[in-house]
Amino acid sequence: MFDRQKRGDRALLVLPQSRGDGDVARRADEFAELVRSAGAEILGSITARIDVPNPRYYIGTGKADEVAEAARALGADLVLIDHLLSPVQERNLEKLLNIRVVDRAGLILDIFAQRARSHEGKLEVELAQLKHLATRLVRGWTHLDAQRGGAIGNRGPGETQLETDRRLLAERVKMLSKRLEKVQTQRGQQRRARLRNTVPRVALVGYTNAGKSTLFNVLTEGEVFAANLLFATLDPTVRKLDGLSCGPAVLADTVGFIRELPHDLVAAFRGTLAEARDADLLLHVSDAADDERERLARVVDGVLEEIDAGDLPQLRVMNKIDLAGLEPRIDRDADGKPTAVWLSAATGQGLELLRQALGELLGGDRVQSELRLPLSAGRLHARLKAAGAIAGEEVDEDGWRLNIDAPRSVIAPLSGGSAAEAALLRNLLAAPEESTL
Predict the structure, then answer these.
(1) How far apart are the first and last CA of the chain?
(2) What does this protein do (predicted)?
(3) Is there a domain that residue 179 lies in?
(4) Model pTM?
(5) Are 96 and 119 a contacting pair, CB within 8 Å?
(6) DSSP 8-class letter at 59
(7) 63 is in an annotated binding site
(8) 309 and 296 within one domain
(9) Is 206 annotated as a binding residue?
(10) Does residue 47 have a known ligand-binding role?
């Protein structure tokens, strides 16, 4: 093989094109944005028409020779190919070109490795990288030229070294899987705690760079990193969302999706994506100024299906209306239920419409009543407060006078206390003017 150079990231892009690829220019721009997000310098690009994939190189042999000549002429350090390659195809191209070759999956994994910040995110990325590397381990070895076959006398030390590396890699994968399982168990306990508190859960999903993190920040006054980059946010962030007519909710920001997301990455990020799978409502954020938004929305729906979240209720959020020259509005179905909100997270246009739609979808029937509780009912008072059901309260020597304002879906699960408390909550759900324990 060859000594793989570690210097520089001067890249030549290879853009395979086949029937059914949709907007070719859009696909090329997206791949170039991926490359820039990884920190590489783009020297040039070559398109390759693919009618029938070449089993040896994926691209044709003539096109492979053209890529080799262009890489030498430009002084490229690596070739990046906008497609998923088999390990054999990647190895054969590296042997022909004599420089690093990275396919789309490897590039996305590299970006994820740069952006992961939390302990869980780093574990997930490393696990996905090791699984991707497992079938490509042989490429890194340059001293196997002396190994000519499996006959007696021809077995070199390289075979033993490769098998040793495979074993070490498998042990590392096993260890990471155990550590990740422990972290995900802890995160699952946090999610179950939110479930017990019956606080509605909302998750932001969408194609990468649609503006999810910007929207998250303006809704929660958070400080999640937001930039005009693909995969600017990897690690899930959960914050309280106030100002809704249905009471407080929990909002989670999740990793952005993209077409041909590596399967190992989706599998590794199942713990992170569980924030979306366990939500009561998904806010599907799209770029309203993007002509391809419906096709990209189908990509997101495909990933949601893969993580068993495809059947969850969705509210489409058409972001960046300021770039599209549109006005904020709410789209509704025949029953008057909100189906989409058009807004701009950057300028704040339409944010109140989004809060209104969320309140309608999460609230349902509300209980608005006055409740008298003695001081001995402290546990029930605490459960009502934790659920966000108390809009106001006064306390005196006789106990609490509470103003209850919450959805019935929040009040109903709290009746698991004493018989007297259960009876009180049943009366409260009947919505009398005042209930007393």
Answers:
(1) 81
(2) GTPase that associates with the 50S ribosomal subunit and may have a role during protein synthesis or ribosome biogenesis.
(3) no
(4) 0.66
(5) no
(6) S
(7) no
(8) yes
(9) yes
(10) no
Q: Which structural domain range is residue 426 located in?
A: 366-430
- Helix, strand, coil percentages (3-state) for the chain, rounded to 5, are 45, 20, 35
Q: Does 395 share its domain with 278?
A: no
Of the candidates 42, 67, 102, which is a domain's last residue? Answer: 102
Is 419 marked within a binding site? Answer: no
End-of-domain residue from the set 314, 337, 363 = 363
Residues 298 and 373 in one domain: no
Which DSSP symbol is given to 98? S
Residue 419, in any domain of the structure: yes
| 264 annotated as ligand-binding | no
Q: What is the three-state SS of 308-361?
A: CCCCCCEEEEEECHHHHCCCCEEEECCCCCEEEEECCCCCCCCHHHHHHHHHHH
Please indicate if the annotation marks 142 as binding a ligand: no
Say if residue 16 is in the same domain as residue 87: yes
| Helix, coil or strand: residue 104 | helix
Instruction: Give a yes or no: residue 109 inside a domain.
Output: no
Interatomic CA distance for residues 371 and 425, integer angstroms? 10
Please check if 210 is assigned to a binding site.
Answer: yes
**Residue 127 carries which side chain, given as an amino acid letter?**
L
Q: Are 437 and 376 a contacting pair, CB within 8 Å?
A: no
Q: Is 235 annotated as a binding residue?
A: yes
Q: Is 255 annotated as a binding residue?
A: yes
Residues 371 and 358 in one domain: no
Whether residues 344 and 327 fall in one domain: yes
Per the structure, the count of domains in the chain is 3
If asked whether residues 225 and 332 sit together in one domain, one would say yes
* CATH for 36: 3.40.50.11060
Per residue of the chain (437 residues), give pLDDT as tens.
344 444 458 999 999 988 766 678 888 888 998 898 888 899 999 999 988 999 999 999 999 999 999 999 999 999 999 998 988 999 899 999 999 899 988 888 888 777 776 676 777 778 777 877 777 765 444 444 444 455 555 455 555 566 777 777 788 888 888 887 777 677 666 655 555 455 678 989 988 888 888 899 899 876 655 555 555 555 567 888 888 877 788 898 877 777 777 666 676 566 556 667 778 889 999 999 988 899 889 988 988 887 777 888 899 999 999 999 999 999 999 989 999 999 999 999 999 999 999 988 887 656 778 888 888 888 888 888 887 778 888 888 888 888 887 767 667 777 666 777 777 777 776 654 555 55
254 has binding-site annotation: yes
Residue 128 lies in a domain: no
Is 28 marked as binding a ligand?
Answer: no
* Residue 208 labelled as part of a binding site: yes
CATH number assigned to the domain comprising residue 240: 3.40.50.300
> Would you say 170 is a known binding-site residue?
no
Known binder of ligand: residue 266? no
Are 264 and 287 in the same domain? yes
- What are residue 394's DSSP bridge partners? 401
58 is in an annotated binding site: no
